[in-house]
Amino acid sequence: MGLPTTPFHIFSLFLVIFANLELLAEAKSAPDYNTLVYKGCAKQSLSDPTGIYSQAISTLFGTLVSQSSKTRFFKTTTGSSQTTITGLFQCRGDLSNVDCYNCVSRLPILTDKLCGKPVAARIQLLGCYMMYQVAGFAQISGLELLYKTCGRTNVGGSGFEERRDTAFSTLESGVTSGNGFYTTSYESMFVLGQCQGDLGSSDCASCVKTAVQRAQVECGSSSSGQIYLHMCFITYAYYPNGVPKMSSPSSSSSSSLYNPSSSSSDRQQDTGKTVAIILGGAAGVGFLIICMLFARSLLKKHDDY
């Protein structure tokens, strides 16, 4: 089938190309729940000359990924005697089963890519995390700090600390009554907290309280922050113009809420550059196609004479 040569068809083809590349630009610029937050890899590598550990880890990963389409938290053990390996995954409490599966299914590959085969590993994405450890690996406190980040903008004064602490207080009580997951907004403050799925309500409340205290001390008057302890995490952000509305957990607006540590102005500049480059490329490609089709049309007319 030949390429269209009429002006209308040429213009339609250009519009289709332009529209598709514009959609591509939007997709590339929107962050989502698959964003890497941090990795935790044990320094000690597995001694696995027979491959028995690798097989056990592969079986464990397969089970965890399979379960992620049915539930947001699952913990299991595989192997036997000396090769026992415990692992779990957890998705953010507001993710659907489909989004949870899509998030968790990335983690085995990321674990191998980022950590290799250590005796213990944990990979945290914006929407989910997965971890495993072999039997005998040293246990750590559920309140141990794994990762923190604080926003670069300071907004001390003007009642910021009072609004933040009131939102934190609401979060502490909400996460206990909300089965280990809670999110809310209060006077331009957005807060979210989640505990590991098998943590009791009392331990969950204690963990979130510790995370809140860490945020108050270590992030101070920063406009946003994330605190990840071994058994829970919190994230918060201050929006002076009001907390943006969320359409879905994977939308760009909601992703900026859950991962607020980078400045919104930086994100907007990066997005603008990406869109400009792609749309500029679209215009160039469209113009080149029009020139080629116009030349072909002239050659065809010349051959007809």
From TrEMBL:
Instruction: Determine if Signal is one of this entry's keywords.
Output: yes
List the keywords (alphabetical).
Cell junction, Cell membrane, Disulfide bond, Host-virus interaction, Membrane, Repeat, Signal, Transmembrane, Transmembrane helix, Transport
Membrane-spanning residues where? 275-295
Which residue numbers delimit the Gnk2-homologous domain?
Answer: 34-137, 142-241
Q: Where is the signal peptide?
A: 1-27
Which cellular component appears as one GO term in the record? plasma membrane
What PROSITE patterns does this protein map onto? GNK2
The UniProt record lists the keyword Transmembrane: yes
Q: One GO BP annotation here? A: transport of virus in multicellular host
The entry's localization annotation reads: Cell junction, Plasmodesma; Cell membrane
- Gene3D superfamilies of this UniProt entry? Gnk2 domain, C-X8-C-X2-C motif
Q: Which InterPro entries match?
A: Cell2Cell_Antifungal, GNK2, GNK2_sf
Instruction: Give the bilayer topology.
Output: Single-pass type I membrane protein
The domain of life is Eukaryota
Where is the major localization of this protein? other
Return the similarity comment. Belongs to the cysteine-rich repeat secretory protein family. Plasmodesmata-located proteins (PDLD) subfamily.
* Entry protein name: Gnk2-homologous domain-containing protein
